[in-house]
Specification:
alpha+beta; 19 helices; three-stranded antiparallel sheet; 42% helix; nine-stranded antiparallel sheet; 3 domains
Amino acid sequence: MADDTSDFIQQKKAELDENDARLQLEKHCREAGIEASWFWHEPRLHLRVGFPNGQDKRWQVVSRNTAEEYLSIEFPLFTCLGDFDAVLFKDKQTIEATVLTASPVSRIQELPGVRLIGYSQMELLDIDEDGESEQRPSGSRVTGNDAWILEFAVTPDRPNLRVAMGSASRDFTIISDRNRRRYMNRDREPLPHGLGRFTTIRISGISTTRHDEALEILNRISGAVFFELDLQYGVAPRLAPSWTSERARMGSRLQQEKAQEAPRNPQNQYPEKPLSLYWYGRSSAGIPLLEYLAYYQVLEYFFPSFSHRDTLEKLRNELLDPRFRPDEDRNLVRIINLASGRGKGFGSEREQLRSTIGGCVTEGHIRDFIESSDTLSEHFSGKQKIKDVAHLNIEDMKNDLLTSLANRVYDIRCRIVHAKEDGGKSAVDLLLPSSKEAEALGPDIELIKFLAQKVLIAGASRLRL
């Protein structure tokens, strides 16, 4: 891939049609102080633009068609917001963000107050009350070709604040990841005036042009709105991540090496309860903390068997020691200490985790797994992205890798389930779902999923019919 400074790139750029909208967009970006660069990816030349996102940039590859769309809006007047598919339109004092729902979006479209919209002039949230609109008839459904909006009633204490959910506005549709990732069905007619075929929340009447303040407002208001929608109507929306965010990039995560031979009938059977937990983790992709805990519970299920096994081995070695004397109290005390368990297993939870991991994988397994992907290698060998957790260095031959692994897995688990307020000075910070640390959990989730697979295999038995 050649970069923007190479003679090859400059030559290919000179060969472009002078009416190519990307050339005009590049010039527009330079004038606005927005970084833009060209790169070659066989078989053609591409332009990428680094749109503002606080102290960072959100890089987007721009085609000729999307360049024309960008040129139709005041693109220097917006900033992307954090790791969400969200934008602050500074000139409109409006935030708009893509919304996902655990339940079908039709549940929101059926809420009281939903209106179909089809006005002659549509701008971002500037809904003309005299424009064309109609209340959705009782019992009817919003169809895929309908543009719709649900405006929330204004409260006396915040008369200028306006919140709405509905079809994405034209300007946001152009900017949104959902447009570039073909969330719009291009085989169907576009919605009126470029409205998007996905749902957004829009917040206007705010007074900020700063990224961090806007992101805080988005989190605070959307969190309250979504929680109360769940309380009152049983719908559970959430903000959609940007496709360039770490959370979304790790959504599909690693491409598993696929077997080449045809599938065969199973020869093993796997314990039903931990297998159910494993499938719960697999179904929780995109919800990193829940996914991590589900795989941890798979490991936790096997704590008693592996900790017993470890303890029995230690007891056996103690009893086989020629120096063992059953008539000496100190020898019997050692036996008691080994046999004294806590709960259903033996030893602390951290020790039981170490026994379980040691019973299903070797250091070689862990090294091979991490080295199988540049993403994993970079995550575990680079700068720590998750604080207060054990460092995992596969190159360190002096320390026990499996112990370091168990400590890391347990530390992350504690950060998910424990809050600082619960444990005083010795406790760790709570790992929040919307934090950058949660975004960075992808490789650790892949690692604990690998451990869950290995422990299920270790706990398997021959298939019985």
